[in-house]
């Protein structure tokens, strides 16, 4: 260990992670309970902080406010149940590669505290979740072996593909990106997806080599091609580019991987990840894709959005009016229509014993819609869509994140120039991820049944049953209808759940996801708790946990569950379920602020670059600065996460452990 001086770190926020590895120090941007000396400025220019509030659709005529749903107590009495869901949180994150610095942290030594807390909430409910680092920007990503500006592990090159509607920049990244992911996985249980650049068949395999070496078994898979059906359109391939052309490229990639001893695990690939616009999954399956490549694949995949806002964002085409499209998201038919084209694909995946993953989705491509994608209505839609995908035998689905210029993020850090006094902002669909994690649980046996058609429910009041270990565990009840506080009609529901073969409990427990309106952006609560409103989020749930005890009528084998307008209820049939007492995650992370006048350190940037820190070239040889993480040859052992130690700021001295 040595002591370094020079280079004023300025405002540094040290995080203590309770019961976490002592080898990694994590820094957060926003101190908890910080008192502002000046009024916070209002940010309205960026899509992530847009103030658009839409008008709810009218109450539909003939709405049945007293629907009845009959449920079987035993799964073996139910026909049409989904496959058992065995892979952690059903919803995961798909993070555009160009914004990972914003969400994960500047580098492996500066990890965003709110991100850890937001993941910890899901981990406590689901056990673990998948996070993908990729998207359109992965296709032009290239690894560099020298430090980037400000010691970031990723930066955008100042050039754009003008033919692509998403206008994604080229990406430069360093080996530190893998260490950042590895360090995060030491604190919270994240499994990662990465993407091999596919813009050329002169394959750049650094992401596979270092991903496997540093992340080990925390690397779940490697995407081979992102929306290849768009490759002709966006200039990545000479047209026409057809499914067989993609197969030929994938065969070439596999041959290259097979010949590379630095990629020891050969069966981690994910494909075809088509967007189902130019050609769809069945066009790929018809080439013999599954039989040809299944021994090299971790999973089959697709990517799809229900709509797009590309004309408004980038010009060309017809601009969609958010008010006009809002009703499209407030119906059960949306999720059904999105899933139906993939039913054959999920069946083929089961026959091949492979997961089928919706690898990228959200409310609308090109950033979503103002007032739609960031509303409580979108939270209801995402939950319904998630349950419908699970019922349709998708294994998992990844909700996409962009930067400050999109409407649909599940959470967003503050703009850089406000990061010293603003906290994060949670999007409504974060609650969707949280609720589904709780609904599926950690048993790895959950099976989903859509009861909407069987019970002849309205498209605006769908319902699902969740079975675990062969027993009825929970019911999910939706009410998309917003009666604007009763001023436009009456739409509160009283849903009777009948158990015709007996076994009705004396009472059931209910958790509600609530907001004033489907148009609401803020004051959204899950079981009485909220993350906070704009610029108030540190990733921890606030408020008292509120679980409602609803009495049943065992003599008539029925329980009547109130569902407000609008609203969502998760009904627990087991009063001892572990999640009834779970609000905030049992382990969370907090920050403490240090000003420029005390507890600061000065470091020579050259010294910092040679610590942890080291140049990409040196660190590739070191593997890790954590004891026991490097083999005798100096290479990283894949089974041990390479913790990069930054040390701790203490009494004006920065101690960098393991420096060389």
Account of the 3D structure:
This protein is α/β, with parallel strands linked by helices and 660 residues long. 20% of the residues lie in helices and 23% in strands. It is built from 15 helices and 31 strands. Strands 5, 19, 20, 21, 22, 23, 24, 25, 26 and 27 form a ten-stranded mixed sheet that branches. An eight-stranded parallel barrel has the order 6-7-11-12-13-14-15-16, surrounded by seven helices. α4 (206-215) links the parallel β11 and β12. It is globular and about 70 Å long. The model is unreliable at 1-44, 159-167 and 592-660 (pLDDT under 50). Residues 463-570 form the Beta-glucuronidase C-terminal domain. This is Beta-glucuronidase C-terminal domain-containing protein. It comes from Leucocoprinus leucothites. Residues 600-631 are annotated as: Disordered. Keywords: Membrane, Signal, Transmembrane, Transmembrane helix.
- Catalogue the unreliable spans: 1-44, 159-167, 592-660
What is the first-to-last residue Cα distance? 9 Å
Strand proportion, as a percent range, falls in 15-25%
Largest sheet: 10 strands, mixed
Basic shape: globular
How many helices does DSSP assign? Answer: 15
How does the helix and strand content classify structurally?
A: alpha/beta
CA-atom Rg in angstroms: 25 Å
**Fraction of helical residues:** 10-25%
Number of strands: 31
Query: On the 0-100 scale, what is the average pLDDT?
Result: 84
């Amino acid at each position: 260990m040595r002591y370094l001086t020079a280079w004023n770190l300025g405002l540094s926020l040290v995080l203590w992670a309770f019961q976490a590895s002592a080898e990694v120090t994590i820094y957060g941007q926003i101190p908890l309970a910080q008192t502002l000396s000046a009024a916070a400025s209002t940010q309205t220019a960026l899509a992530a902080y847009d103030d658009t509030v839409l008008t709810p659709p009218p109450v539909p005529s003939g709405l049945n406010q007293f629907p009845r749903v009959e449920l079987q107590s035993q799964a073996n009495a139910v026909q049409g149940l989904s496959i058992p869901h065995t892979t952690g949180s059903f919803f995961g994150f798909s993070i555009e590669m160009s914004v990972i610095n914003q969400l994960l942290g500047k580098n492996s030594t500066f990890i965003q505290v709110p991100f850890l807390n937001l993941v910890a909430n899901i981990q406590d409910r689901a056990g673990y979740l998948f996070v993908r680092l990729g998207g359109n920007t992965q296709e032009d990503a290239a690894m560099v072996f020298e430090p980037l500006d400000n010691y970031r592990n990723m930066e955008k090159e100042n050039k754009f593909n003008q033919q692509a509607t998403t206008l994604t920049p080229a990406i430069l990244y360093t080996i530190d990106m893998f260490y950042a992911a590895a360090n995060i996985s030491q604190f919270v249980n994240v499994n990662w997806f990465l993407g091999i650049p596919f813009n050329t068949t002169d394959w750049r395999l650094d992401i596979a080599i270092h991903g496997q070496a540093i992340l080990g078994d925390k690397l779940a898979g490697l995407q081979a091609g992102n929306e290849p059906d768009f490759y002709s359109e966006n200039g990545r391939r000479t047209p026409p580019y057809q499914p067989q052309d993609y197969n030929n490229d994938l065969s070439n990639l596999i041959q290259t991987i097979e010949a590379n001893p630095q990629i020891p695990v050969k069966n981690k690939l994910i494909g075809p990840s088509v967007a189902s616009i130019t050609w769809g999954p069945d066009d790929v399956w018809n080439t013999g894709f599954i039989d040809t490549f299944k021994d090299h694949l971790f999973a089959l995949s697709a990517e799809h959005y229900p709509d797009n806002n590309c004309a408004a964002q980038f010009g060309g085409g017809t601009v969609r009016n958010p008010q006009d499209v809002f009703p499209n998201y407030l119906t059960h038919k949306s999720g059904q229509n999105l899933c139906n084209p993939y039913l054959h694909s999920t069946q083929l995946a089961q026959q091949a014993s492979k997961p089928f993953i919706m690898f990228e989705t959200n409310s609308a491509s090109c950033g979503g819609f103002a007032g739609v994608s960031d509303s409580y209505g979108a939270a209801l839609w995402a939950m319904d869509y998630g349950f419908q995908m699970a019922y349709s035998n998708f294994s998992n689905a990844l909700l996409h994140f962009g930067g400050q210029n999109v409407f649909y993020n599940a959470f967003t850090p503050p703009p850089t120039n406000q990061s010293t006094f603003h906290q994060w902002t949670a999007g409504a669909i974060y609650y969707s991820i949280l609720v589904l994690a709780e609904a599926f649980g950690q048993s790895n046996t959950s099976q989903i049944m859509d009861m909407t058609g069987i019970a002849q429910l309205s498209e605006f009041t769908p319902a699902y049953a969740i079975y675990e270990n062969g027993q009825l565990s929970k019911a999910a009840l939706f009410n998309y209808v917003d009666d604007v506080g009763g001023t436009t009609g009456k739409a509160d529901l009283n849903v009777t759940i009948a158990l015709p073969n007996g076994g009705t409990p004396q009472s059931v427990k209910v958790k509600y996801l609530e907001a004033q309106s489907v148009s609401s952006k803020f004051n959204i609560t899950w079981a009485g708790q909220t993350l906070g409103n704009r610029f108030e989020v540190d990733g921890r749930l606030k408020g008292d946990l509120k679980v409602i005890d609803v009495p049943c009528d065992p003599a008539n084998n029925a329980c009547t569950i109130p569902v407000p307008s609008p609203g969502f209820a998760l009904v627990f049939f087991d009063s001892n379920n572990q999640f009834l007492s779970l609000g905030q995650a049992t382990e969370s992370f907090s920050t403490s602020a240090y000003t420029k006048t005390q507890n600061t350190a000065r470091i020579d940037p050259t010294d910092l670059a040679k610590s942890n820190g080291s140049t990409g070239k040196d660190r590739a040889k070191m593997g890790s600065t954590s004891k026991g993480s490097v083999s005798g040859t100096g290479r990283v052992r894949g089974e041990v996460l390479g913790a990069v130690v930054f040390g701790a700021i203490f009494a004006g001295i920065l101690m960098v452990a393991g420096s060389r």
